[in-house]
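Q: Predict the assembly, please.
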Amino acid sequence: MTAHEIAPLPDLPADLPGLVRIETSDRHATTPIIMDMLRSVYPHDQVFGKYCTVQEYIDCPPDEVFRYLSHTRSLEEWTYSLRGFTPAGEPGLWLAYDRLGDTTEIYTRTVAHPAAMTVDYHCAWDQGTHLWMVYLMRVVDARTVLDVDGSVVLWTNCRHPFYDENPYPETAPADRVPWVGDFWEMFAAGHQLEMSNLKAICEYRWANDLPVTPTWMSE
Amino acid sequence: MDTVSLIDIAGYLPENRVGADYFAQFAASDRLAENIMFRAPKFRHHIASDENAVDMAERAVAPLIERNGSELVSNVDILITHTQLPDVPVLGTGGELARRLGITPDWVVDLHNGGCASFVYMIKLARQIMQTGDASTALIVSVQNSAGQIFTQSDVRVLAQSAVPGDGAGACLLVKSQAGPVLGLECRTYPEFAGDMTAAVDPPRKYWEAGTGQLHIGFTETKIAKVFARGNRLVPEVALAVCKQIGITPDEIDTLVTNQPNRLFLRNWRDALELPAERHPDTFDECGNLFGAAIPVTLDLENQAGRIPNGSLVMMSAFAHAGDFAGAGAIRWGAAPVGV
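A: Predicted assembly structure:
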């Protein structure tokens, strides 16, 4: 085998379920599979049931958008309902209130990687020890992917089993009715609205020579 | 504005009923043969060798004369035809059809665009003429005659695409009345998608020039995916536009009839409109892709079988060629056979 040949995967059975490679499924065999997968419409649950991904183009440089997102307190501005961020004691951990859940506390720790421009918000309602609600975001230079100035922001959320059942009911306010997972079906639409907020904020500030990340956020 | 109604519809299928095995025997490989038997329609009808487009048109119109009397047809003000493969390149079917029927309509129109959605387009054209002038009756005829001619040539019938088309014709009568009102129509032209379908001959020549290669319809594989995605979008889009125009939701559609290029489109379109299969009849397995004749032929067969009672909301929707045209129309049905 030369270095240019495609690896034959000798350790795997050729008929391994789920494995579709041109060596064992040529174009004539694969094209009908693909045509069958191409639909006019896709059920909501198929698209947003297990994973919820939204994306948006923002006319603002990627390093600016990344820097803004990497501040946990930017969530105060561009999310629909997270308000009142204060340090929660532990370094990097923030406490805020999710107004979706009346007086619900939400804890957030932000993990940002500048080289990859990824910003992951690790959150949870009610308690700050097990941050299981994870919002994975990535900023991409739009010049690279769309050949225009600006940013593309990708945002994925995975349906952690805790969305279906609160694992720490004892930490919830006694009189609170909703659970964050009750809103899962609305996440795609809700996150798209929040993404629009992010776009509107960043584009306005950038277009008007205002700091995209307000000075108070860095203090 | 005067209401225009579809008062009767009829179809014609050539006698020669051809099974999928006809194409499988010519397939270039065993795998293609297997594919034809699995995916292609079980049957399709082919025009007879001594039959031409006008013959087919005349045969589609015959039941309309029989059921509605020769006087009505003799006095139509408008005759509009669409012929997939004109017998003579410079001539449509209208003139000779009028001669054979012994009619002299004020309007004889051979429509050449609109493809698989041409039946809707012809209804729209006729309605427009009727609502803005004195004309009060129209005869619409759609002829698809390429299957048994283009797609049976020795070098073309070996291609996978050749097993799909079928021949057939359909006709309807429109009159100014309230009997079966055409409620709404939406026709859209997409020039940006024109030209993506080509008539290919190898070695290249003009189709009318003498030469060795046999004419067929050319699509590259990448174009097929693009056309497929367009078709997936266009047919529900124009149907939904008509729903909006007439103030209904798609679930109020009793019978959806579309063009029928393949099974995947049929599934995807009813999925998009959230309609069960039983409300989306087709004739794909018996007739193959009937191009522009699919809508009238399927409507006729369903109607004669008593499955479209008067008062039903019938939605027609189709797209043409590689997506350069799409049309949809809704009718409050009034053409059910007597006793249904």
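The mean pLDDT of chain B is 94. Residues 150 and 216 of chain B are 7 Å apart (CA to CA).
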